[in-house]
Structures are given as C-alpha cells and as structure tokens.
Specification:
Blueprint lengths: L2 H17 L4 H4 L19 E2 L6 E2 L6 E6 H6 L15 E4 L8 E4 L2 E4 L9 E5 L2 E2 L4 H4 L6 E8 L13 E7 L8 E9 L3 E13 L3 E12 L3 E3 L4 E3 L2 E14 L2 E14 L5 E5 L23 E2 L7 E16 L2 E18 L12 E17 L6 E21 L10 E26 L4 E24 L6 E23 L2 E12 L2 E2 L11 E2 L2 E14 L4 E20 L4 E23 L2 E16 L3 E2 L6 E2 L12 E14 L2 E12 L2 E2 L9 E2 L2 E12 L3 E8 L7 E6 L6 E6 L4 E9 L1
Parallel strand pairs: 7-10, 14-19
Antiparallel strand pairs: 1-2, 3-9, 4-5, 5-6, 7-8, 9-10, 11-12, 11-44, 12-13, 13-16, 14-15, 16-17, 17-20, 18-43, 20-21, 21-22, 22-23, 23-24, 24-25, 25-26, 26-27, 27-30, 28-29, 30-31, 31-32, 32-33, 33-36, 34-35, 36-37, 37-40, 38-39, 40-41, 41-44, 42-43
C-alpha cells in the first residue's frame, strides 16, 4: 500500500467518523435511493424495455431483475461480474483471460472458450448482441441507464435467439435540453486508482445532443509470484464511448461508438489441493506447495498469465413513425481481439509455459422491427434479423525445457488454427391481446436458420494431440421457437402470469486442441420452460415484490468437461432445472431502504449416459447427478440508510451481502472440485451535498472472506488441483460530483 493512500485513507476515515453520526432516530429521516420514489417513502414504477416497449416491470410476464443507473453508481457496480451481487440465480466469473468469462443462470453454465460453441445465455448492449461474453465482461460500466436481467428463453422479441436468458445493458442517451454529467475518482488498497466521467450536452436544443464517457482503472497485484518475485493479478483497463442523438417529429436517430482495451497481468492459479500420486503414473511435479495455500495468495507459476484484449464497435438505431406504427432499424458492427499468454501447467516447471491463445471475433448485425401503437387492445411487434460472425482461434502450445517423460512426446509443439463463419437469419414476432380489462394473452414465435462453416487445422508433434491437418465441416440448424403467456391484473398494482416458452441453441464444433476426431461436432440444444410469477407493490406502496417459479427441461444440453488435457463439449441427453426466485425492495420511509433477493435452484441430469468419470477413462452414467457450476441457494440482501447532518448535507451508510451455497466445478462432481459455500459483504459510508458532491469510504469484502472461485486438476493428472481465489478485502475512498 502506498504512503499517499495511507494518509488519504486516515484523513477520510476521520472525516467520515465526525460527519456521519447515524443514530436510530436519524435513520428514520434518511433519503430513499434514487431508484425509489422521492417523496413520502414507497416504491416508484420501474420502467423496462424487456419487450421492446416502455412498460412497467409488473406488466411484463418475464422473470426480470432491473438495476437502475443510480443504484449502479451507489453500490459500485462497475463491472459485469458485479451483477451477481443483485440478480438472484445469476453468477458471473472471469476464469483466466477474458475469453474464458462464464455466466450461470438458473443452474445453466455458459462457457465460451471454444469459438465453435455459442452461449445459452446472451449479452446485449443497447440492443446489440455480443458474440462473446468477454466482449461485455471485459468492459468497465459507463453511463449506464439500467441493466435488465431476463431469465428463461428470449427468442421472440430480441434479434438474436437466447435459450436460457440474457443480460441487457442499456446506456444513457444524450441530453437534448441541458448540460449534465458525473465524474468520480476511486483510490484504494493494492494501488487501486480509478477514474470515470460522463458528460452530455445539447448541440441543437431539443433536437441534437452529444455525450462522451470514459474510464480508466488500474490496480496492483492481488497475488505474489514467489518464483518470479513480483506481484501478479493486476488490472489495467480503459474504456471510452461517444453518442449522438437526434430527435424530431416522427424520427429519432442514435449513433454510438465505443472502444475498450485491457492489458492486465491476470489471472494466475494457486494450489487449492494436493491429491497425491497421479493416476497416469507419470510422477508428480517436483513442487513445494506454498504454506497456507490457497489463501496465502502465493502462486508458483514460473510463467506469467496475461490478459490483453481490446475491441469496440459502432451502431445506429433509427426509429421512424410510419402512420401510427414505429419502424426501428438497428445496425451494428463490432470486433474483439484477445491475445493471451499463460502457463497452464500452473507450477514452477517449465513444461507448458508461454501458451499463446489468439482469438479474433468480428460481427455485423442488422435488425428491423415494426411495432404497433401501445394504447390498443391488440398490440404486436414483428421483426427480421441478420447476423454474420467471423471468428478465428490460433493456439500455440509448446513443450518447455522441463518436459515430462519422453513417452508423451514425438516433438515439441501443437499448433491449431481454426476459423468459423456463422450466419443467422430470423423472422420473429409477438402479439398481445386484452381479453378483458384484467386478463391479457400473448403469443410469440421465431424461425431461425443458422448455417455455419468450420475450418480446423491441427499441426502437432505432441503424442497426445495427433497431427490431423486441415479439416472442414459445415452444418445448418433450423428451429421454430415460441412463447405463450397469460397475465392477470388483480389490481392496478398486483399482477400474476403463467408462461411456456421453447428455447434453442445451434450445434457447433470443437475448435481447440483435440486428442481424437470422435465427438468433434455436437448437436443443437433445445429446452422448454414453464413459469408462473407474481409482481406487485404492497403495504401502501412501500414494498415491491417479484416472485417466479420455473421448471425447464433441456434436451441435448451442450455440457463441458476437462479431461486433464482439453475441454470437451458433449450433448447430455436431458436435464431439468427447477426452482423459485424472490426479489424485492422495502422502503418504509424516505430514509431507509432495504433490498433482498434469493433463489432455490435444483438442476440435475435426468438422462446423461456419456458423462465424465472420476479418475478413470471412458464414459460414466451421470443420470440423477447435479449439474456442475450450479449453487442450489443464492441470497442477496442489503440496505441504504441516510440522515441529514446540516442543511444541504446528508450522511449515508450502505451495506450489501451476497451468499451462495456449495457447487462443483467438474462435470463428474469430483470432491476435489467442490466450491464451499461463501458470502461476501460490502460497505460504504459517506456524505453527499445537495449539489451532487459526495465523499465515501468503502470496503469490498468487508470481513476479508476467504473463498474459491474455481478449481481444476493439474494437466495430465499431476497430483494436485489449482484454481482462482476471490479478491481479498479492499478499502478505499470514492469522490464523485454530479452536475
């Protein structure tokens, strides 16, 4: 920790101690968070566009979590992975470099290290589908208006089909009437330094506006590499976005451009377990496991793991009035490049050092939608969608100067060069009809045609990766997906719904290193989701409550397993996930607001005869077994308390806590891959003025909880498990000014 930070932290701790004397009496007069009503306590109407129309969230028959922009700022939700602190049954992790970012929703994991495999869960930014999760998860959150987390199949209203759910990040439009913005600086332990800014102003009043936002974040290493004698797991990110917005009678146009770059030294693996003599009989690596592993935060990798990636794109959204209808065109181009170098043997043994993985993804999408007027008994929306993705994966795995016994080798390197051309053509639509003043029915459908072409070239001198040369494959998937629901408004503030929806994800091909051509291709994945829900505002508008119960059956689910040398994608014949989700917010006064969310998820295979075995070769029957990556219980709670100090000056305290039950990393539920239950608390205390200035002291992972994020066996069964640990406690200061 730097001396400058120690001085600043001490100064602001003292300031906060005298500036925020929160007592029980004062807590009764605190202010509501900005996402709630501003007067008299109580809940405000939450607006979403989950169905491509501006609607109250209680009128949307979808299990959806909405996180408003003010709450995003107040709770320091600065990255994609922070969303799991608020959204029930959702988890997001960066495992290694950015291309390995994963999501899990309702027990369904989505891993995209292989560019020949698509995701069961989608990520959209301003309506634009992101080909890879890392295209969004590697960015810093800037000028966010809100985030919508939609659970269940979403194929009838969003351009790109998503089988299990999606995350939609909506950024702010430029202001057409006045200059406004916000800036903040964060200083913290581990040499943390962050700066973010957003400004918008009209260029032609009430017609043309401009906005610009930028962020830069750096942090020192959270781990110590005892072999290289340096700190690792650093962070270094930069983001910028610009927008032009034009609005006049009958037309509005939004032009956006963004760019981000990351050069972090991340992410290094630490020993999680020593499991003795490997099954391969090759002899364990000659290593000394650091005392206190994994929570001593010492890695013995003798090579760096790096995470350089950059990308960006441009988009144009045009809305034109056509009579009393609205025609929308959304055109976008994006590109993302990853060039990571890592040390997959994970120990001080120069065996697989400097493993290069280069990926490049380019995409173009065009969406057209026609929407009917919203104030009629029958409303409808219809659309066309085109999507073109070109991806390349180049990998250079070579043997270092300390190889394992020569029986493994006939040479020194395995190089793969893979490419995929993926196109999607789709027509989709949904109609909604008011059967009575209280009962509304909706029906939607989507037809998808998706041709793919694959090129795979494996040139290898390593025994376990044969030299296959150039291989070409192609496939075309077609699917009709649909959704039907009924919504009943018991009162203007309480609704219930029932829905059934069919989801689909195309098949694909393994495009990373393979030991054989068996199972190279995998089939399409389908599901059907049944759901009932209740949404409402209760107790004199002080309590907002949303609940959902679901049952989803997947067929030919694309699941991933690690066999010690490679990740394998296979189709599990059938699995089901079922559960309950509850979330809400209680605001008994202007000064106190509490939020809560939780879920119970039971995800297990009902038919999977070709699963991974523990410690032995061949296939095992995993029918009846729990899905890896799925935590049965998830809990999110938190609160905001504020009190006036003097005229124009308030103090506040904000707390949040997220807890997850245990889960397993490995498909075979190997006990060594178990992630124990853990909970992480965060706290913020500060002062804010009426003119938008605030000073805050915060603690992430307040109680310095020690927990694992991920663990996996060393390559070739080398007698141990390594993985990634959660971030330690980080204390810092945030200064911000809104104008």
């Amino acid at each position: 920790m730097s001396d400058n930070f120690r001085r600043l932290r001490a100064l602001l701790f003292v300031s906060a101690t005298f500036a925020v004397p929160l007592s029980a009496a004062q807590a009764q007069d605190a202010a509501l968070p900005a996402d709630m009503a501003a007067t008299g306590g109580g809940a405000s109407d939450i607006v979403v566009t989950a169905q491509k129309r501006v609607q109250n969230v209680k009128d949307v028959p979808i299990a959806v979590t909405v996180i408003g922009g003010n709450r995003i700022e107040e709770e320091q939700i600065t990255s994609f992975h922070d969303i799991e602190r608020i959204a029930p049954s959702f988890k997001s992790l960066q495992l290694g470099d950015a291309r390995a970012s994963t999501m899990n929703m309702r027990g369904v994991s989505s891993v995209q290290g292989n560019p020949g495999r698509q995701s069961s869960l989608g990520v959209f930014i301003d309506g634009v589908f992101m080909a890879r999760t890392g295209m969004a998860s590697s960015q810093d959150f800037l000028d966010i208006e809100r985030i919508e987390v939609l659970r269940g199949p979403q194929g009838t209203l969003f351009g790109m089909n998503t089988a299990g759910g999606l995350i939609h990040i909506i950024t702010r439009k430029p202001n057409l009437s006045e200059l406004s913005g916000r800036a903040e600086v964060v200083i913290g332990e581990y040499d943390t330094l962050e700066a973010r800014g957003y400004a918008t102003a009209p260029l032609i009043e009430n017609k043309l506006g401009l906005s610009v936002s930028a962020a830069k974040s750096t942090r020192g290493g959270l781990l110590y590499n005892s072999v290289l004698d340096r700190r690792v797991d650093t962070e270094n990110k930069f983001n910028v976005r610009g927008k032009l917005y034009y609005a006049d009678d009958g037309i509005d146009v939004l032009l956006s451009a963004d760019y981000h770059k990351e050069t972090s030294i991340c992410c290094s693996a630490v020993f999680t377990r020593v499991t003795g003599t490997p099954a391969t009989g090759l002899g364990a690596y000659p290593v000394t496991v650091p005392p206190g592993s994994p929570y001593s935060r010492i890695t013995i990798q003798d090579g760096l793991s790096t995470n350089p990636n950059e990308g960006g794109g441009v988009s144009a959204e045009i809305n034109v009035a056509v009579g009393d209808h609205t025609l929308t065109s959304l055109t976008a181009w994006r590109q993302w490049t990853v060039r990571s170098i890592n040390d997959p043997d994970s120990v001080n043994w120069n065996f697989l050092n400097d493993f290069l993985i280069y990926q490049k993804h380019s995409q173009f999408s065009q969406e057209l939608r026609l929407a009917s007027p919203a104030d009629q008994p029958l409303t409808y929306l219809a659309g066309l969608f085109f999507y073109d993705r070109r991806s390349r994966d180049y990998e250079d795995l070579h043997i270092g100067k300390d190889p394992l016994p020569p029986v493994l080798l006939t040479g020194q390197a395995a190089i793969t060069d893979s490419r995929v051309k993926d196109r999607t053509y789709a027509i989709f639509g949904q109609a909604e009809y008011k059967l009575t003043d209280k009962l509304t029915a909706a029906l939607g459908a989507r037809y998808t045609w998706e041709p793919q072409k694959f090129s795979f070239d494996q040139q290898s001198q390593i025994y376990i990766y044969p030299n296959f040369g150039q291989i070409y494959r192609k496939r075309t998937d077609r699917a009709l997906t649909w959704k039907a629901d009924l919504r009943y408004a018991w009162t203007p503030e309480v609704t219930t719904y029932v829905s059934v929806a069919r989801g689909f994800k195309p098949g694909g091909m393994t495009m990373t290193r393979v030991s054989s051509l068996a199972g190279l291709m995998f089939e399409e994945e389908t599901n059907i989701n049944y759901e009932v829900g209740l949404k409402g505002i209760f107790f004199d508008r002080t309590l907002t409550l949303n609940t959902a119960a679901f049952y989803t059956e997947y067929n030919d689910f694309q699941t991933t397993a690690f066999d010690g040398t490679r990740y394998i994608t296979a189709n599990a014949e059938q699995f089901t996930t079922q559960g309950i989700e509850v979330e809400g917010q209680w605001a008994p006064s202007r000064h106190v607001s509490l939020f809560f969310g939780g879920s119970y998820v039971d995800a297990h295979y009902t038919d999977f005869t070709n699963g991974q075995c523990t410690g032995v070769a061949g296939a095992c029957d995993l029918s009846g077994q729990r899905l890896n990556g799925s935590a049965k219980w998830n809990l999110n709670i938190g609160g905001s308390f504020s009190a006036p100090i003097t005229t124009g000056l308030d103090g506040y305290l904000r707390l949040d806590y997220a807890w997850k039950s245990d889960s397993y990393v490995a498909q075979d539920l190997d006990p060594n891959s178990r992630i124990a239950p853990y909970g992480v608390a965060n706290a913020r205390v500060g002062i804010e003025t009426d003119d938008g200035f605030s000073v805050e002291v915060f603690a992430k992972n307040l109680f310095d909880k020690k927990y694992l994020l991920f663990t996996y066996g060393l390559p070739f069964g080398a007698g141990g498990h390594v993985g990634y640990v959660g971030a330690p406690r980080l204390i810092g200061v945030r200064l911000s000014k809104a104008f």
